[in-house]
Design brief:
This protein is an alpha+beta fold and about 160 residues long. The protein has 3 helices and 8 strands; from the N terminus they run H-E-E-H-E-H-E-E-E-E-E. Strand 5 and strand 6 form a beta hairpin. The N and C termini lie far apart (about 35 Å).
């Protein structure tokens, strides 16, 4: 385990496009397939040390469109979006949790912990089963969503 839920489709798409994206010099931060209203979106979040530009997104888009069409993992019509993970990033993978130890995070829960369904604090520790935010132990299976929190006041 050690991660928040990724669907089989998301994992398959990532396995397909990751080598292409990495060869271009980018890291795949996350792959998310979701329905919004009547539309379906395949969102691929890419990153690199000095940030992501619109040209980077266009290059990746043009480099993976044909193979996505060829493999046809997604049978319904969908919109492909390539973007940066942004300043406040979703945390879903083992490496996301590890990279954010000692950073401020917001955790949304399925079931309340200490009477709260949302906890914001410093991510102190992570293992395959639980995380610790401030002094609160949270089971990974109880996490509905997690993200980094950018301190806008400091900038």
């Amino acid at each position: 385990m050690g991660e928040l839920k990724m669907t089989a489709l998301e994992k398959n798409v990532e396995s397909l496009v990751k080598p292409i994206i990495e060869k271009l010099g980018y890291k795949v931060y996350d792959v998310v397939y979701q329905k919004e209203g009547k539309d379906n979106y395949l969102r691929i979040f890419i990153d690199k040390t000095d940030g992501i530009s619109l040209n980077d997104c266009e290059l990746v888009n043009n480099s993976i469109t044909d193979i996505l069409d060829e493999k046809d993992y997604i049978k319904t019509e969908y919109f492909l979006e390539i973007s940066s993970p942004g300043i406040e990033r979703n945390i879903r993978r083992k490496e996301h949790f590890e990279e954010n130890i000692n950073n401020k995070v917001e955790i949304k829960l399925f079931k309340p912990v200490d009477g709260k369904k949302s906890i914001t604090g410093i991510l102190k520790d992570y293992n395959e089963e639980t995380i610790i935010v401030d002094e609160i132990n949270i089971e990974l299976k109880n996490i509905a969503a997690a993200k980094t929190v950018y301190n806008w006041e400091e900038k």
